[in-house]
Amino acid sequence: MRALITGISGQDGSYLAELLLTKGYDVHGVVRRASSFNTSRLDPIYQDPHQGGQRLFLHSGDLADAVGLVNLVAAIRPDEVYHLGAQSHVRVSFDQPEYTADITGMGTLRLLEAIRAAGVETRFYQASSSEMFGAAPPPQNELTPFHPRSPYACAKVFAFHLTVNYREAYGLFAANGIMMNHESPRRGEMFVTRKISRAVARIAAGLQDEVYLGNLDARRDWGYTPDYVDAMWRVLQHEEADDFVIATGESHSVREFCEVAFAHADLDWERHVRTDPSYDRPSEVHHLLGNAAKAKRVLGWTPTVRFEELVRIMVDADVEALEAEMSGRTARIER
Ligand code: NAP
Ligand code: GDD
Predict the structure, then answer these.
(1) Does 197 fall in a domain?
(2) Which ligand is nearest to the CA of 183?
(3) What is the pLDDT of residue 67?
(4) Do the Cβ atoms of 232 and 178 come closer than 8 Å?
(5) Is the distance from the beta carbon of residue 87 to the nearest atom of ligand 1 less than 6 Å?
(6) What pLDDT shows up at residue 48?
(7) Assigned domain for 114 exists
(8) Residue 3 backbone phi and psi in degrees, to 5
(9) Domain-embedded: residue 294
């Protein structure tokens, strides 16, 4: 089997690539050009092309470049396409709405058209988001109407409906995973969980004393990313293309995340957390809490890591990484 992953250098892409390699796939990933290396999350699985036996292949490409996507799909002829690439930060999408619509929304259209233009028979996974539910009251499932609250969420709603439309119009096996927030030691440093776990490590080491956050009352259904990439794979193995909410069914506030994370390092969060309204969003998503009963029933998927364990995994990894950095060693953030 041959898989193509957009966004392979991101949090989810790196875990998914590992999973597919262990399942025997050849894995092809699209990496966009940057002025310095942006593939550090792939270091544990990087293979030197000069050594032979290579099963991980990285290709230069960008979701803004339609012709490049056609050429890539035509050359790779993947059995499965996992479309994870996106401008994925909600707050940033208010500052860069047009760019977000172009990459997160139009990028999906370009990739779907690339599959059609290349005439490749493949299965397509769209990384849809619980942000699409936005202001819809919890719990949210596949029948909950979308009420997006950011340019990012609007772009994801566009991409969700395109995926359904290409399934209906062209018979493409195109499926949506509507995923609640999922986190890990590889989470981007600008998302709230990783911002907190890094701050805990640095405060415990005496390197800083405070961390500034925005809305502490927001509630999220936080899961563990390795569980969620397993769900992506299951979505594409199902006999028919369909859409699935992926969630733990448990929600917690940002404040609770702080409490558990700081307590794990024997710290009192209230002594170190400050708020700064500049991190607030013009329109907030207050409460996401998913019902993944359909994924459990149809795909046999269940989460294995719960909230408190997730927080501990992230804090431990950042403490370990910081200790390694301070002693000149290489960190082992491979969980
Ligand atoms: P992430 O860490 O931000 O990764 C995003 C990936 O997209 C990175 O590889 C990034 O490349 C790539 N990318 C950005 N702009 C691109 C462009 N113009 N052309 C090609 N690639 C581009 O996000 P993630 O957490 O792994 O999430 C993966 C996907 O799932 C995203 O679509 C996200 O919106 C969606 N999602 C995530 C969650 C979650 O909680 N993590 C929940 C629901 C849905 P660089 O490494 O160069 O930046
Ligand atoms: N980033 C950030 N930084 N968020 C903060 C902060 C802060 O300092 N303080 C409070 N928050 C609140 C945000 O207002 C939001 O309500 C919540 O913490 C979570 O924010 P993020 O971690 O940035 O994630 P998100 O929920 O906006 O978006 C993530 O999950 C979506 C799925 O629901 C991203 O991964 C999206 O790409 C994904 O689609």
Answers:
(1) no
(2) 1
(3) 98
(4) no
(5) yes
(6) 85
(7) yes
(8) -115, 145
(9) no
Pocket probe for ligand 1: among 88, 109, 157, 229, the residue whose CB has the most ligand atoms within 8 Å is 88
In the prediction, which pLDDT does 59 show? 97
Expressed as residue numbers, the domain containing 62 is 2-181+223-246
Catalytic residue among 14, 93, 129, 197: 129
Q: Of 15, 152, 224, 228, which residue is the catalytic one?
A: 152
Place of tokens 């599959």: 115
Q: Which residue from 220, 224, 286 has its CB within 8 A of the most atoms of ligand 2, so it is best to mutate?
A: 220
Mean pLDDT by 10 residues, the chain (335 residues): 98 98 98 94 91 93 98 98 98 98 98 98 98 98 98 99 98 98 98 98 98 98 98 98 98 98 98 97 98 98 98 98 88 54
| 206 inside domain | no
CATH number of the domain at 229, please: 3.40.50.720
pLDDT value at residue 47: 85
Q: For residue 192, how far is its CA from the centre of ligand 2 (angstroms)? A: 6
Q: Is the CB of 9 under 6 A from ligand 1?
A: yes
Q: Is the separation of the CB atoms in 138 and 289 below 8 Å?
A: yes
| Residues whose beta carbon lies within 6 Å of some atom of ligand 2 | 88, 90-91, 129-131, 180-181, 190-192, 195, 213-215, 218, 220, 254, 279, 281, 284-285, 288
Which pLDDT score, from 0 to 100, does residue 333 have? 53
- Provide the domain count of the chain: 1
Ligand 2 atom with minimal separation from the 218 CA: 16
Return d(Cα 308, Cα 311) in angstroms, integer: 5
Q: Is-cis flag, bond preceding 139, omega within 30? A: yes
CA distance 251 to 217: 12
Q: Is 129 a catalytic residue?
A: yes
pLDDT at res. 175: 99
